[in-house]
Amino acid sequence: MSILLSGGAGYIGSHTAVALLQAGQDVVIADNFCNSSPKVLDRIEAITGKRPALIDADLCDREAADAIFRSHTITGVVHFAGLKAVGESVQKPLLYYRNNLDSALTLLEVMQAHGCRQFVFSSSATVYGDQPAPLHEDSPTGGCSNPYGWTKFMIEQILLSACAADPALSVVLLRYFNPVGAHESGLIGENPNGIPNNLMPYITQVAVGRREKLTIFGNDYPTPDGTGVRDYIHVVDLANGHLAALNYCAAHTGCEIFNLGTGHGVSVLEMVETFESVNHVAVPHVIGPRRAGDLATVYASAEKAERMLGWKAEKTLADMCRDSWNWQSKNPNGY
Length: 335
Prior knowledge:
Blueprint: E1 2-6, H1 11-22, E2 26-31, H2 39-48, E3 53-56, H3 62-71, E4 74-79, H4 86-91, H5 93-114, E5 118-124, H6 147-165, E6 170-176, E7 178-180, H7 199-207, E8 214-217, E9 229-230, E10 232-234, H8 235-251, E11 254-260, E12 266-267, H9 268-279, E13 285-288, H10 303-309, H11 317-330
Parallel strand pairs: 1-2, 1-4, 2-3, 4-5, 5-6, 6-11, 7-10, 8-13
Antiparallel strand pairs: 9-12
Helix pairs in contact: 1-2, 1-8, 3-5, 5-6, 7-11, 9-11
C-alpha cells in the first residue's frame, strides 16, 4: 500500500517524500519533470535509504493516471502537480486552467474508479485575496488576483462538491503560506526554472553569484520597515504538515481546511538581514517600485492545524536562512 505524490519530484513534494519515507510509508512519485529533476530521486534515497517508485507521467492523461493505480495499491494521494508561476499564469491563463484543473479532475476520477478515498490538496493562501491578517480558515475566499490563484480556488470548490456527494471521501485542503528553506542535508532544495518568482531563491542566487542584486519591490508599505510582510514557513515543517494531514484523512471523512504557516510575518528586509547575519554572506539589494498586485501584510492563523492535526511550525527564521544557503552553496547551479 502506497501514497501517491503527484508532482512529487518538485520542491515541496520531494521534502514530503522524505517525511513519509522516514515515517515508514511507501511512496510512489508521479511527475512529468516540467519543473523538477529526476536527480531528486537519488537525493531522496541518499537521505532516507529508500527509493520511491517513480512514474514519468502527465496526470492530465487519464490512461497514464489509471496505469499508476493498476500497477500500485494506492491508499492516498497528495496532489502537488500543477503549474505555479503567478506571472506566467497571467500571460498564459488557458494553459494554467487546462493543466491545473484537468490534472485534479483526472486524479479524482481515477481514484473513484479504484476505490481510493483519501486526498490531500496542495492549495495556497492566494485563495484569500486581499484581506487583513491574520487569515483564518473561515476567512472569505475567491478574491484571487491571478489565474494561478483561481485554479487553487476552483479545485477547492471541486473537492468540496466531491465530498458533499460522496460521504466516504476524505479530503484535506492545505493552504500554504510562503515555503522556504531546504533539507538540512543540503541534498534537496528549491530549484526554480529561470528567474525565481519567490524571495528566498532570489536571495540565495544573488548570494552565490548567479545574479547581480536583489530588487526589493517597494519600501513604502504600512509595515514596520516599509517592505512587504509575509508568513514564511520552512519546507520541512510544511512536509510534516502533509504527514499529519494524511494521518487525519485516515481517521476522518469529509473535507477539512488547514492553514500551514507560522502565524507571524517577516518583512523582506528582515529576511535579507537575517540571511546575511546567519550565513556571513552579503546580499546586494536595491529598492524598486512596488510590484502590481502585491499586498502589504499577509500571515496565517495557524491555530486550527495545531489543535486538530497536532502540527505546528518548529523551525526558526534563522533555520530557514541557514538551510536555504546550505542547499544553494552546495548546489550553485541546482540539480
